[in-house]
Amino acid sequence: MVNLAGVKTCDETILQELKEAGIKPIMVGKREHREVPSEYIGVCNDFIFNRAWYYWVVSGYMPLEHAKEMYAKYKDLNIRVAGHCGNPPPEEWCEPKDYHDKCKPHSDKFWAKEITADELNEICTEIREQGEQFVTHYHIDTQEGLNRFVETVRSNCIIG
Asked: Any bridge partners for residue 63, and if so which?
């Protein structure tokens, strides 16, 4: 993918990439103060796609089962879990859907100095391991990776 940081005419490229992947473009208006000043985002089954300088940032809830399958099949396409440059396995970066909501009260206690960092880490680690696991965001560096991500979402009827 080409670097679109600061490119004022980026929408043509973005619309082309979205179309090739089968992602619905949504016009959100001028976003001149963003890294990539596009007027568009993409949406597919509740996954949100935002173009960054040379990759797509994807937000949504990919079930761990499908994240693992995708990693096994397409690891070389740079569909990067959590945007991690080391492209680690998804098991290292998954969490239940309500993870942040459940951790927030404990985080507030930490900032109020009612619990220690170690106690917060222990509580949030326990919360992280409970319930169905999801990968909540990706960075995708290649058009083929974007295409395969959308194919996985559609073929498995995944609602992010």
From this structure: 134
Where along the chain do its domains lie?
Answer: 10-83+135-155, 99-128
Nearest to 77 by CA among 150, 125, 160, 148: 148
DSSP 11-61: HHHHHHHHHHHTPEEEE----TTSSS--SEEEEETTEEEEE-SSSEEEEEE
Q: Is 148 helix (H, G, I), strand (E, B) or coil?
A: helix
C-alpha radius of gyration, the chain, whole number: 17
Q: For the segment 72-110, what is each residue's pLDDT rounded down to a tens digit?
A: 999 999 999 988 888 889 998 888 888 888 889 999 999
CA angle 140, 142, 145 (to 5 degrees): 70
